[in-house]
Amino acid sequence: MEGEPRSAGPAGDGAYPADRTGRSDPPTGDRGQHPVPTSPHGASRRLRGRLTDPLQAQVVAHTDGPMLVVGGPGTGKTSTLVEAVAARVAEGVDPERILVLTFARRQATELRHRIEARIAADGHRVLREPLVRTFPAYAFGLLRRAAAERGEPSPRLLTGPEQDLIIRELLDVVGEEPGDDPVGWPEDLRPALRTRAFAAQLRDLLMRAAERGVGPVELARLGEKLGRADWPAAARFLREYVAVLALRDVSNRGSVAYDPAELVRAATGMLLDDPGLLDAERRRLAHVYVDELADTDPAQQELLAVIAGGGKPLVAFADPDSSTYAFRGADPAVVGGFPHRFRTASGAPAAQVTLTTSYRAGAGLLGAAGRLARRLRGPAAHRRLRPPPGTPPGTVEVRTFRSATSEAAWLAHALRTAHLLDGVPWSEMAVLVRSTHLHLPSLRRALHTAGVPTVVHGEDLPLHLQPGVAPLLLLLRCALEPERLDEEAAVALLHSPLGGADPLAERRLRQGLRALALAGGDRRPSGELIVAALRDPAELAGIDRRWVEPARTVAELLATARRAAAIPGATAEDVLWAVWQASGLAERWAGAINRGRAATGEHETAQRWRAEAADRDLDAVLVLFDAAARFTDRLPGARTEVFLDHVLGQDLPADTLAASADRGDAVRLLTAHAAKGLEWDLVAVAGVQEGIWPDLRLRGSLLGSERLVDVLAGRADGTGVRAGLVGQTSALLDEERRLFHVAVTRARRRLLVTAVASAAVGGDDHEEQPSRFLYELGVGEPAGGADASRHGERSRHEQAPPGTVSHQDPPDSRGGSEEGGDG
């Protein structure tokens, strides 16, 4: 959440312990009933007195017509929203008549907890809570409520597995000959039709089209106009897809299934088609608040205009410089257009308040972020931030290294020093990166080796990559598809928690298998022998039991999975449960958690780390079981292999059951996207390389879903001509710069920014260059001292005094102004 004045009270500061579900409940027992106010105006004055910023108090007091609140990072936008909702409740407004909308589930959950805690802290006990929803969740609620009022079956949300299954079944009917293709796919796409990747890209194209209200006719027209033969084919496929969904709705007793991408537009269309329903909803909503307006897409903005336009009390909070979801249709330009789109009842533009006091960072940090922000396009008034008087300036350090290994080693040293010498808690430090796959694994290994406790933010890893889940999925895949069991998979299973082998055990196993094979005239390499032993444990006879136990355990688990899957009617949940019970992991992880809770001494840190890891792994497995149960409920009779395809094909981050697994005393490792709305005392932004950050490669999938978004947003003409490519690259650079701006503004006290600068060696033409963004910070670069030299730091840098920043850009920095960016 955004920064806030320290006098703003306990709301949102994590004052209340979280339970296993991550819920932060205030210590007030039950919620009682709706509060009875004494004097609405007195209550409002009392709440406004909690805020030190008069502009924030002005926003809290606003109750008439639309208002736009713009503020940079740490200006207390979310805190002001929380105070405003609490003020309305204190004035006697029924909480159920207050709607708060935000862009993501995590933000909605945290915002709901903050509002609950804030209302409780004021002495009120409420039975009904303000509605805090994401736009899709609110839209689904509208559709469900309308169906209930009409006496119709409740609608269903079409899940990812269902979508994938329908799409792949429709693609599977395409034969080898052109006449066997009812859709008429282009010839060059036909070899890819049955692949999982093509189905995923087709689903992505259909979702992007649905989000923007593009139907089959419009999609085909755009394809013909731009010379794309794949879009008219996708339009024909879309007609078949819609027809199949309609048939499924009939078979489900009339329960309409909505694609997640069409939820918001479906709700908007329903309201527009039913004036009575729309009037009732508008009368029901007394106040509407929107957090992170800059991250909304056109469909969400249209829904907002329908329910809260025409001069209704609507307060929207935005930071256009933090808009980082252009691939979903978000555009920071929506902020500038808000006052004219949402006018007062008299037709005047909406009121606007600009917050310019940052309660998060001091002058040094704000200066560096401000110089970066000057390169961003758009109005600049909200970028002129100042800290409250007496705020420490903070420090900014920019360093480059000869290798990624040196970079990681120095970061580990810096974090340990901050913890041991400066007393910064591990949980008040974070390392942010641009890419999960490129940097997080290596950084985590380096920090762990250096004794720095870390936790990878749960939102950054898809479920199938979670450390506790990946071995289970790999074992199921190898059991059900034996050809998948090769040497790499076998070794991974042996070293996983399922096998528990260490390098010595693997080496002894290889030696034992090789010796037995040679004695029998078998000259196969040891890798093949390990695979054979896992398929048939009899191969392990004659080898010392100490070294064969991991292999025997894995072999038995593979056999368990095969037996469970062979039972008639067995579901993915059944097979997973059989393997889980046989693995013994539940008992082992529970024991580690209990030992960690009992460990209190300074020398028992390792036990606490193992306990935190076991807690996270157990949480991830519970999420996997939950996913398997939902899959079984929605697709009864589907084979376990289909479930594996579904989970392994998900690139989006996994859900989590417990935020507590992400709140231990450890350094957070996460991407800049996941860091949005969060803050720490010390933040390190690592791997800031040219080509990685900014990543200016045009995101082009086989079916061009990104191109469709750009064309509809006016960022490209879709033809790929030079002018269009320049426009796309410029827009991409803007978004990458905004994402970097989000990263560097997460720090309250100290910011470290690191990169690798290495020349090509020998015949290798690969050269690492620091990102242009490092120079745009305008900070003096530190020199290599004894510690720095030990970590391979470049020695040409100069140390910047603490809290000071250079106002001179290095000679190779790029030009820019407040109103325009590069390109």
3D structure, described in words:
Mean pLDDT is 80; it is low at 1-49, 654-662, 761-765, 782-790 and 793-823. The chain is built from 30 helices and 14 strands. Helix 4 (105-121) links the parallel strand 2 (98-102) and strand 3. It folds into four domains: 50-150 and 263-355, P-loop containing nucleotide triphosphate hydrolases (Rossmann fold, 3-Layer(aba) Sandwich); 157-255; 363-375 and 396-461 and 662-790, Rossmann fold; 464-652, PCRA, domain 4, CATH 1.10.486. The strands form three sheets. A six-stranded parallel β-sheet has the order 3-2-6-7-1-8, with helices on both faces. Strands 9-14-13-10-12-11 form a six-stranded parallel β-sheet.
Unreliable stretches (pLDDT < 50, length at least 5) are 1-49, 654-662, 761-765, 782-790, 793-823
**Mean pLDDT score, rounded?**
80
Strand content: 5-15%
CATH superfamily name of the largest domain? Answer: P-loop containing nucleotide triphosphate hydrolases
Instruction: Measure the end-to-end span.
Output: 32 Å
Q: How can the largest sheet be summarized?
A: 6 strands, parallel
Radius of gyration: 28 Å
User: Treating each run of at least 4 consecutive H or I residues as one helix, how many helices?
Assistant: 30
